[in-house]
Write a structure and sequence with these properties.
This protein has 266 residues and is an alpha+beta fold. The protein contains four helices and twelve strands; from the N terminus they run αβαββββαβαββββββ. Strands 1, 2, 3, 4, 5, 6, 7, 8, 9, 10, 11 and 12 form a twelve-stranded mixed β-sheet that branches. The N and C termini lie far apart (82 Å). The relative contact order is 0.17.
Length: 266
């Protein structure tokens, strides 16, 4: 009887010790909840986002140009036909170069976007001469057709605010509430927000947000650098991104793993 009771106590101890909710799990982990937002940069960022409008934004200029290097979370597919014989060429990729150029048409602005896959892998018909044809043509053919869109600063700023809410504020709030994120309940976040100046085309104010996040079944590290006054490109004022935002419900086929601005000419 004593042995049975001892065994029951031992098993109870093991269950408590192994429980993911147990604060003793992983002594090197950060404390529970959100840590590291002791300064006023985060509050200032939230205030600026909530109280800024189109009149506070920088207008684009004719022939302004930006180029990004980007990596997607999920693999993508690109196909093209060789003109003279209709051969179908198929490639997969996770990285791309994206170039956008602003044009002024009368009193309005347009943005022309071109996406070029990089580090591609041939996955078409496994016949040597077909692959040779595709490889010879891919540099020209994989450069996507330019896509043109009209620019609406008011709409761009509205979309940018929603983007920043998902990328920064919702992540912080989820961990404050210990809500469910990808990987289970958010157990802890060690976050940092700073407000700095960067020299790109001119000195501009940027916010830098970084966080180490512990979820029930996974850990995440995310980094974001962005400026608030230039929201009109496809990635708004985002200058640097590393790590997917671990929020539930996002479309992983569109999720970005990393982004870096290579050039920005004004």
């Amino acid at each position: 009887m004593k042995r049975l009771k001892y065994f029951q106590i031992l098993m109870l101890f093991v269950l408590v010790a192994c429980n993911p909710e147990n604060p003793r799990r992983g002594a090197a982990k950060t404390p529970r909840g959100v840590q590291g937002l002791g300064g006023n940069a985060y509050e200032r960022m939230v205030f600026e986002i909530d109280n800024s409008g189109p009149s506070d934004l920088r207008s684009p200029v004719d022939q302004e140009e930006i180029e990004y290097r980007i990596a997607y979370v999920k693999e993508r597919t690109a196909t093209f036909n060789i003109d003279n014989d209709g051969t179908l060429c198929k490639y997969t990729y996770k990285k791309a170069l994206i170039k956008e150029v602003v044009s002024k048409v009368n009193t309005e602005f347009e943005i022309v976007k071109t996406t070029t896959p990089t580090e591609t892998t041939y996955v078409g018909i496994p016949i040597a001469n077909v692959k040779q044809k595709c490889e010879a043509a891919k540099e020209q053919k994989l450069k996507g057709s330019p896509l043109t869109r009209k620019l609406d600063l008011t709409e761009a700023w509205k979309n940018y605010k929603n983007y920043l809410k998902n990328e920064v504020r919702n992540v912080i709030e989820a961990c404050e509430k210990r809500a469910i994120i990808m990987g289970g309940k958010c157990m802890s976040m060690n976050a940092d927000v700073t407000r700095d100046q960067e020299v790109l085309f001119d000195p501009i104010v940027v916010y830098k947000f970084g966080a180490k996040i512990e979820a029930l079944r996974a850990d995440y590290t995310i980094e974001r650098t962005f400026t608030l006054n230039y929201p009109y490109f496809s990635f708004f004022g985002l200058i640097h991104l590393r790590g997917m935002t671990p929020l539930e419900g996002q479309d992983l086929s569109k999720a970005i793993d990393s982004l870096e601005v290579l050039t920005w000419k004004r």
